Amino acid sequence: MSLLPRVIVLATGGTIAGTSSSAASSTRYQAGTVPIDALLDAVPVLKQVARIEAEQVAQVDSKDMSFALWATLAARVLYWSAQPDVAGIVVTHGTDTLEETAMLLHLACDTARVPVVLTAAMRPATSLSADGALNLLDAVRVARHPESMGKGVLVVLNQVIHAGRDAVKAHTSAVNAFVSPLAGPLGIVQDELVRYLRAPVALPGAPWAVPAAWPAVEIVASYAGPGRVMVDALVAAGVRGLVVAAAGNGSIHETLVAALADAARAGVAVLRSSRTGQGHVTLCRHPDPQAGLFASAGDLNPYKARVVLAMALARDPALASDPSGLQRLFAEI
Ligand code: SIN
């Protein structure tokens, strides 16, 4: 009987499982083609690090992530987290929407006993200097590490450990594409060394339920000369929430403010986030008094904020017409 810790790998596809006809190509390839067992076999040293069991939960390009797959993935993570002899869980994922899945799992998982680590790759498995094998090894090292307990869902790529709440993809192709914009990385992993540099900013209290039915929440952007047609169409279609990718510190064009204020008065939750990619949207900045109807997403980007808003509205639909309640909730995320 091996004394190595038991680590579960849940595979969903992505570039880490991608293949190209040319080893020289790192951008022309098909994501989600190599089975997880083959990816694990390609890293023999893993057998010295953990007793690994793998499940092929899906095999998708993460641009096509769906609510149904989120439900399946979260259920598998929660199942394995409850098994007494599991030391850690690794989820392999495409990089394109990893930050959204990380936000979902951040809210849905209790990592006090079993760490949950997402990993991915920017280059397909067939590429020269493919990054997936090392990222997978590092993710397993982090998942089995006792100090990874209770830190929330983690993201490991390029030898950096990020908090799942904070991690975002900030480059189209570089292997160091993931950053934690405001807070910085949580730690590093270098060979056997797993070193945490700071505590997580915020951890959810009790895990949130993954919605059985997701309320419709969409993202609209503020830019020069916008019309109100998109907001009006979304409201007419029955949307429950709108996240604004606003300019700067949450500034929204006056035409859009008028449309969004009408939406808020009609019972649609409206959230101000920033399209800048970094920084906190403060409450006091917006010059239009109608913007008081819109809560701030804090430092969450529009895509992460949308996940939180949809999950929050599924828990409590009354939040849609309660900007103060929504504001309190986002202040704690
Ligand atoms: C994907 O997100 O599935 C494709 C892109 C990637 O993993 O880097």
TrEMBL record:
<feature type="active site">
    <location>
        <position position="95"/>
    </location>
</feature>
<dbReference type="InterPro" id="IPR004550">
    <property type="entry name" value="AsnASE_II"/>
</dbReference>
<comment type="similarity">
    <text>Belongs to the asparaginase 1 family.</text>
</comment>
<dbReference type="InterPro" id="IPR020827">
    <property type="entry name" value="Asparaginase/glutaminase_AS1"/>
</dbReference>
<dbReference type="Pfam" id="PF17763">
    <property type="entry name" value="Asparaginase_C"/>
</dbReference>
<feature type="domain" description="L-asparaginase N-terminal">
    <location>
        <begin position="6"/>
        <end position="200"/>
    </location>
</feature>
<feature type="active site">
    <location>
        <position position="15"/>
    </location>
</feature>
<dbReference type="InterPro" id="IPR040919">
    <property type="entry name" value="Asparaginase_C"/>
</dbReference>
<dbReference type="InterPro" id="IPR037152">
    <property type="entry name" value="L-asparaginase_N_sf"/>
</dbReference>
<keyword id="KW-0378">Hydrolase</keyword>
<dbReference type="InterPro" id="IPR036152">
    <property type="entry name" value="Asp/glu_Ase-like_sf"/>
</dbReference>
<dbReference type="InterPro" id="IPR006034">
    <property type="entry name" value="Asparaginase/glutaminase-like"/>
</dbReference>
<protein>
    <submittedName>
        <fullName>L-asparaginase</fullName>
        <ecNumber>3.5.1.1</ecNumber>
    </submittedName>
</protein>
<dbReference type="InterPro" id="IPR027474">
    <property type="entry name" value="L-asparaginase_N"/>
</dbReference>
<dbReference type="Pfam" id="PF00710">
    <property type="entry name" value="Asparaginase"/>
</dbReference>
<dbReference type="GO" id="GO:0004067">
    <property type="term" value="F:asparaginase activity"/>
</dbReference>
<dbReference type="InterPro" id="IPR027475">
    <property type="entry name" value="Asparaginase/glutaminase_AS2"/>
</dbReference>
<dbReference type="InterPro" id="IPR027473">
    <property type="entry name" value="L-asparaginase_C"/>
</dbReference>
<feature type="domain" description="Asparaginase/glutaminase C-terminal">
    <location>
        <begin position="217"/>
        <end position="316"/>
    </location>
</feature>
